[in-house]
Design goal:
This protein is mainly α and 185 residues long. The chain is built from nine helices and no strands. The longest helix is centred in the last third of the chain and has 22 residues.
Length: 185
């Protein structure tokens, strides 16, 4: 018998908040099509509507950003990881929110939405197996081009604030080796 120790879980755990944030998501074509790698074009009004309809999910997600995240250990091949798809859907919603905020002239808010998605992506990898690593990378990849483009239009104060937050997120990076170790357990 091999006994694999379970890690101490944070309390509160952002995992629970992210899971809860995925539940009130308004199912819509954009979510299903994104999962099928078919990104439909939506007008800004449609994006605004989707962000408005999913305001509760965003509120719960942001509550989670203030907590530490640790994915519960996966010790069986039968353990479902279907909840991770919601992380990607939440990141897509944050991308839409960023685009809406930018269209309204709120560049700092648009950058905050991008950074929220990047933080969700980094968090999703803590304690997760390789699928969590891949989902986290996908969350980050959805908003990285937008964040780079926005960074050229922020004021010095806004850019410095964004840089500090990004550095804080980067400091929590999960290495590929850490994900492989978790995969092997």
């Amino acid at each position: 018998t091999v006994i694999i120790p379970n890690p101490a879980m944070p309390d509160p755990n952002a995992f629970d908040d992210y899971l809860a944030a995925g539940k009130p998501l308004k199912e819509d074509v954009w979510i299903r099509n994104v999962e099928e790698s078919q990104q439909p074009e939506y007008s800004m009004k449609q994006r605004e509507r989707l962000v408005r309809q999913n305001a509760r999910a965003l509120l719960i997600l942001r509550r989670g950003l203030s907590h530490r995240f640790r994915h519960p250990p996966i010790r069986s091949f039968s353990t479902s990881t279907s909840h991770m798809a919601k992380h990607r859907q939440l990141a897509r919603l944050l991308q839409f929110e960023s685009e809406v905020r930018e269209s309204q002239g709120d560049l700092a808010g648009a950058m905050d939405s991008c950074l929220d998605a990047i933080e969700l992506g980094v968090d999703s990898q803590h304690g997760a197996t390789l699928i969590g690593k891949l989902v986290g990378i996908a969350c980050q990849g959805l908003v990285t081009p937008q964040a780079w483009r926005l960074s050229n239009h922020l004021t010095n104060v806004q850019a410095l604030r964004a840089q500090r937050r990004l550095q804080s997120i980067t400091n929590r990076h999960v290495s590929f080796a850490q994900s492989l170790r978790e995969e092997g357990q």
